């Protein structure tokens, strides 16, 4: 089975392709940006983005919107993760977290799948902590500051794909795709 994945983020595409292999699903990359409405939660953003894109893409496709939610910052950057990463980045987040004892954070991923008629959504979450400093050189985005157990996602490499928010969302999505056959 083959399915189109729309993203401008190469790190996300690589992970999705690797996880797809485990489920026998081939992922084709549509590399482009798309319009994301602001001021809603991730699920709403993903759903509306997919509905808008469906006017242009004629085949079934999915996109995935993810975010880092930091408890001590009341869920910031959450739906603003992309902008925050591009502006203040990991250094900026570490600075905001200086002297903060509660390091709890989670990643959320929402997949929106356009099946040709309607949008279906699938979610995944992983809980961890914000590190005290950046560690590791694998992965992308916030991986160097997100600790899962003793290691950051950027130190885990391939092992990240066993436990990540993206893996968990894809798991339910791919199970759904397989159930259609
Ligand atoms: P697309 O919308 O084109 O897919 P994006 O980079 O904007 O690409 P997101 O909105 O889903 O993707 O991601 C929000 C931010 O969170 C972005 O800066 C990512 O680099 C970061 N991010 C997403 N998933 C991550 C992960 O697994 N590990 C670390 N950072 C991640
Ligand atoms: Na995005």
From TrEMBL:
<feature type="binding site">
    <location>
        <position position="66"/>
    </location>
    <ligand>
        <name>substrate</name>
    </ligand>
</feature>
<feature type="binding site">
    <location>
        <position position="36"/>
    </location>
    <ligand>
        <name>Mg(2+)</name>
    </ligand>
</feature>
<comment type="function">
    <text>Pyrophosphatase that catalyzes the hydrolysis of nucleoside triphosphates to their monophosphate derivatives, with a high preference for the non-canonical purine nucleotides XTP (xanthosine triphosphate), dITP (deoxyinosine triphosphate) and ITP. Seems to function as a house-cleaning enzyme that removes non-canonical purine nucleotides from the nucleotide pool, thus preventing their incorporation into DNA/RNA and avoiding chromosomal lesions.</text>
</comment>
<dbReference type="GO" id="GO:0036220">
    <property type="term" value="F:ITP diphosphatase activity"/>
</dbReference>
<feature type="binding site">
    <location>
        <position position="160"/>
    </location>
    <ligand>
        <name>substrate</name>
    </ligand>
</feature>
<keyword id="KW-0479">Metal-binding</keyword>
<dbReference type="InterPro" id="IPR002637">
    <property type="entry name" value="RdgB/HAM1"/>
</dbReference>
<keyword id="KW-0378">Hydrolase</keyword>
<dbReference type="GO" id="GO:0009117">
    <property type="term" value="P:nucleotide metabolic process"/>
</dbReference>
<feature type="active site" description="Proton acceptor">
    <location>
        <position position="65"/>
    </location>
</feature>
<feature type="binding site">
    <location>
        <begin position="140"/>
        <end position="143"/>
    </location>
    <ligand>
        <name>substrate</name>
    </ligand>
</feature>
<dbReference type="GO" id="GO:0036222">
    <property type="term" value="F:XTP diphosphatase activity"/>
</dbReference>
<dbReference type="InterPro" id="IPR029001">
    <property type="entry name" value="ITPase-like_fam"/>
</dbReference>
<protein>
    <recommendedName>
        <fullName>dITP/XTP pyrophosphatase</fullName>
        <ecNumber>3.6.1.66</ecNumber>
    </recommendedName>
</protein>
<dbReference type="InterPro" id="IPR020922">
    <property type="entry name" value="dITP/XTP_pyrophosphatase"/>
</dbReference>
<dbReference type="GO" id="GO:0009146">
    <property type="term" value="P:purine nucleoside triphosphate catabolic process"/>
</dbReference>
<dbReference type="GO" id="GO:0046872">
    <property type="term" value="F:metal ion binding"/>
</dbReference>
<feature type="binding site">
    <location>
        <position position="65"/>
    </location>
    <ligand>
        <name>Mg(2+)</name>
    </ligand>
</feature>
<dbReference type="GO" id="GO:0035870">
    <property type="term" value="F:dITP diphosphatase activity"/>
</dbReference>
<dbReference type="GO" id="GO:0017111">
    <property type="term" value="F:ribonucleoside triphosphate phosphatase activity"/>
</dbReference>
<feature type="binding site">
    <location>
        <begin position="165"/>
        <end position="166"/>
    </location>
    <ligand>
        <name>substrate</name>
    </ligand>
</feature>
<keyword id="KW-0460">Magnesium</keyword>
<dbReference type="GO" id="GO:0005737">
    <property type="term" value="C:cytoplasm"/>
</dbReference>
<feature type="binding site">
    <location>
        <begin position="7"/>
        <end position="12"/>
    </location>
    <ligand>
        <name>substrate</name>
    </ligand>
</feature>
<dbReference type="Pfam" id="PF01725">
    <property type="entry name" value="Ham1p_like"/>
</dbReference>
<keyword id="KW-0547">Nucleotide-binding</keyword>
<comment type="subunit">
    <text>Homodimer.</text>
</comment>
<comment type="similarity">
    <text>Belongs to the HAM1 NTPase family.</text>
</comment>
<keyword id="KW-0546">Nucleotide metabolism</keyword>
<dbReference type="GO" id="GO:0000166">
    <property type="term" value="F:nucleotide binding"/>
</dbReference>
């Amino acid at each position: 089975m083959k399915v189109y994945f729309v993203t401008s983020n190469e790190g996300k595409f690589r992970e999705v392709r690797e996880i797809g292999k485990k489920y026998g699903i081939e992922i084709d990359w549509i590399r482009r940006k798309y319009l994301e409405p602001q001021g809603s939660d991730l699920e709403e953003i993903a759903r509306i983005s997919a509905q808008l894109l469906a006017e242009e893409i004629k085949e079934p496709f999915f996109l995935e919107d993810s975010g880092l939610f930091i408890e001590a910052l009341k869920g910031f950057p959450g739906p603003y993760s992309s902008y925050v990463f591009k502006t203040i980045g990991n250094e900026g987040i570490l600075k905001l977290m200086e002297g903060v004892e509660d390091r709890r954070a989670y990643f959320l991923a929402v997949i929106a799948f356009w099946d040709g008629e309607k949008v279906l959504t699938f979610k995944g979450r992983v809980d961890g902590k914000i590190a005290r400093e950046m560690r590791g050189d694998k992965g992308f985005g916030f991986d160097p500051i997100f600790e899962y157990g003793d290691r950051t996602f950027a130190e885990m490499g391939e092992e990240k794909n066993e436990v990540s928010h993206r893996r968990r969302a894809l798991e339910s999505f791919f199970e759904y795709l397989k159930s259609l056959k």
